[in-house]
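Our working data are protein records whose layout never changes between entries. Getting from the letters to the tokens is the skill we practise here. To make this concrete, we reproduce a full record directly below:
***
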Amino acid sequence: MVRTLSCVPIETASDNKDTPIIPVRCFSCGKVVGNLWESYLELLAAGVDEGDALDKLQLKRYCCRRMVLTHVDLIEKLLLYNPLDRDRR
């Protein structure tokens, strides 16, 4: 039996390059944190410290703070590896 994986085409992801790959919910408590990423980056760009930015976003639990604080946005690096751009042999 051969199993195949269905994949979403990369073009749909590359249309919107500002889309972060941050988990939608906290792994520990389940609070929604995915919508706070852009606000967090804006606060950091404004010169606010990380802890103060998390406080302004009302992230009080350390598990939720960890989700935002330790996230590494890899979408730009992942989009460089588009398998559809490779020459097919």
The helical segments are 10-14, 37-45, 50-56, 62-69, 75-79. Residues 22-84 form a domain with the Arc Repressor Mutant, subunit A fold (CATH 1.10.10.60). The longest helix spans residues 37-45.
